[in-house]
Write a structure and sequence with these properties.
Blueprint lengths: L2 H24 L6 H20 L4 H27 L5 H35 L1
């Protein structure tokens, strides 16, 4: 995988979460759940950037694992917004698809990094 794909996808996802936050505040007058999705949805990309500057492979895995948790939390808020009728089915499916793609990419990156760590440890 191109190392910039995950960064680009997470950045675009953060932008979508910001736009969703604005929509929820301006149009739906919803201020609590929208803040949660803003926080967790933008944290994913920030943690990926931190992971790229990790001090070690273990630190990289740790940062990406936290990003994965934030992504999963964002999926929870998206589901809650849909089930409480704040977003339409079309909005829900679209942003959920992006979140699920990020989730899979992060999971794959973590698995690969752990495998590499294990191979490095076994060689020593």
């Amino acid at each position: 995988m191109n190392k910039f794909v995950l960064r680009e996808k997470s950045f675009n996802f953060a932008l979508r979460c910001i736009k969703l936050y604005k929509y929820l505040c301006d149009r739906k007058k919803e201020f609590v759940l929208s803040k949660q999705i803003l926080r967790s949805g933008t944290a994913v990309g920030a943690l990926i950037i931190e992971g790229k500057q990790a001090e070690s492979k273990a630190d990289f895995v740790h940062k990406y694992a936290i990003a994965l948790k934030e992504c999963n939390e964002t999926i929870y808020w998206i589901e809650l917004l849909f089930r409480s009728d704040y977003i339409s089915e079309l909005q829900y499916e679209s942003i959920l698809n992006d979140a699920n793609q990020l989730n899979k990419m992060l999971s794959s990156s973590i698995i690969t990094a752990k495998r590499t760590m294990k191979l490095t440890t076994n060689r020593q």
